[in-house]
TrEMBL record:
This protein's name: Cyclase family protein
Origin: domain of life: Bacteria
PANTHER family named among the record's database cross-references: CYCLASE-LIKE PROTEIN 2
A family per Pfam: Cyclase
Secretion signal, residue range per the UniProt entry: none
GO molecular function (one): arylformamidase activity
Any single GO BP term: L-tryptophan catabolic process to kynurenine
Gene3D superfamilies linked: Putative cyclase
Organism of this sequence: Levilactobacillus parabrevis ATCC 53295
InterPro entries the record matches: KFase/CYL, KFase_sf
Length: 260
């Protein structure tokens, strides 16, 4: 509404349903699920080192940097086209409402402290459901391993043994099939480079291929999952709309049902 006060005209904010929702959301705790990344940040071993180059300074009138990095860098999103040539879904094709989902966090961090090769099984999921309830359809399931605490060390993320074999946790293929085929979730995420455990990649990234070839997306290299409850939070994923991008860094965060 417009309010006239002497010579001044002011516009008062409209108490719209959207403003009420946003105001209510800001009263909750927000958790950043995204790593800050730079040229020395952990990267998939096959990728070249990124470049962050200053091309204009304030002496030129403005400060600008040029960035050279692969789409799958930092906390990033993988759309279906990333692994399956028969899929036609790029980052730009993801519906906005697909990027705001109920967030389910399954904690396997204790198992990972005992073995870096630990994976999430169907039995683990059923044990989680016995405690927290059935995983809801159309949700985002995140695997917490606390691997994200190894950031920003490339060495700690790869975790190579004396023979050069990497060791880091991941998902069982059957566990992925369970959450998608039995629980009908929308997407999944994790804290590591890959969906699959490092030691179970003899036949390729079969878990990641399964997710993407069935039209789903995933977010890799998540952070701060230890600050999010098992249920009750929502994940929000913001990503640039790069043309025909088979992956891109994101800013993901969770709104947690706790007072800020």
């Amino acid at each position: 509404m417009t309010k006239i006060n002497d010579s001044k005209v002011t516009v008062e904010p409209v108490n719209s349903p959207v403003s009420q929702v946003v105001t209510a959301l800001k009263d909750f705790k927000w958790v950043d699920l995204t790593h800050t990344f730079g040229p020395d940040s952990p990267r998939f071993p096959s990728f070249a080192k990124p470049k962050f180059k200053t091309i204009f300074t304030h002496a030129d009138g403005f400060f600008v940097k040029e960035y050279t990095f692969p789409g799958q860098f930092g906390t990033h999103i993988d759309p279906p086209i990333h692994f399956d040539a028969h899929q036609d879904k790029y980052v730009e094709d993801l519906d906005l409402k697909e990027l705001v989902l109920p967030l389910i966090v399954i904690d396997r961090s204790a198992a990972v402290t005992k073995s870096a090769d630990a994976s999430l099984s169907v039995a683990d999921i059923k044990a989680w459901e016995a405690k927290h309830g059935k995983i809801p359809a159309n949700s985002f399931v995140a695997l917490r391993t606390d691997w994200g605490k190894r950031w920003p060390s490339q060495e700690k993320f790869e975790n190579l043994d004396a023979k050069g074999q990497a060791h880091y946790p991941g998902w069982d293929l059957d566990a992925l099939k369970f959450i998608y085929e039995q629980r009908h979730v929308t997407a999944n995420g994790h804290e590591t480079f890959d969906t699959d455990t490092a030691v179970n990649q003899e036949d390729g990234l079969v878990g990641e291929y399964y997710v993407l070839s069935h039209g789903h997306y995933q977010v890799e290299l998540l952070d701060n999952l230890d600050l999010v409850p098992a249920t009750g939070a929502y994940i929000f994923i913001s990503v640039p709309k790069a043309e025909k991008a088979p992956g891109f860094p994101v800013r993901a965060f969770a709104v947690v049902p706790d007072a800020k």
